[in-house]
Please model this.
Amino acid sequence: MKSVKENFDRQTSKRFDEYEERMKDKRQKRKEERDKNIQEIIEKDRKDKSLAEKVEKGCLRCGCALGGVAASVGLFGGLGIYVSKSAALATAIAEGAETAKAAGEAARIPAAIDAVIKGIETKFGVSTLGGQKMETFFNTTLYTEVSKIADAVYNQYAATCITSGNGARGPICTLAWQYSESRGNVVSAYNSIEVAVKPIVSQAETVAERAVKTATDEAIQRSIGVVESTYAICQTAIIASVVAIIIIALVMIIIYLVLRYRRKKKMNKKLQYTKLLNQ
Model:
């Protein structure tokens, strides 16, 4: 019985040692496999981290660079446009001076003739001179020639007030008689008409000067308007470019923040997994 017991203990111990040896080998293999897996995870994590950091830094650098470009475009582009626009405006004003002068002269004579015609119509109540419309009369007569205008008005007076036998009493007749006959004035009808024509011509000169100034200002403003519209397009293009660059920069920064958040979240999960493997 003792021999059987010893034999059993010996076999059991041997089997236990064999089992322990096999378990030791298995534990060693599992430990090596676990260490290998952990090393692979760490290496993969290092590569992912490196790539993620490169992408993040690239997005951040790109966003910062684009922000700087936007500021530079806005600053130097606006400054360049301002300087160029100032020079263009000066050139436009200088070049438009001759055009403005010509436009002023073109507006001066019609305005003056129109003022003289209205003055004669109001003062003398006539619509024709020398048997023709006053517009036609002034096509061959300067509006400043007081004597010729007075001659034409006097001829109209003679035809209306002297030679007509119907006793006409128009404004032209009344005006001439007031100067020549009333209150003992010994002044000819021609002189009274000439005296009345002079202020009409003088007032027409004032009207002509105003017309010249208006036409000149309008011509200069048109030249300035061309420059303004041209540079307004340039300003719009720069503003659109700056806005586009800023939007791209913001997108890059947002991508950087999202990638950074995802990488940190992933690293925390891997750290927890590694701790579990080490336990």
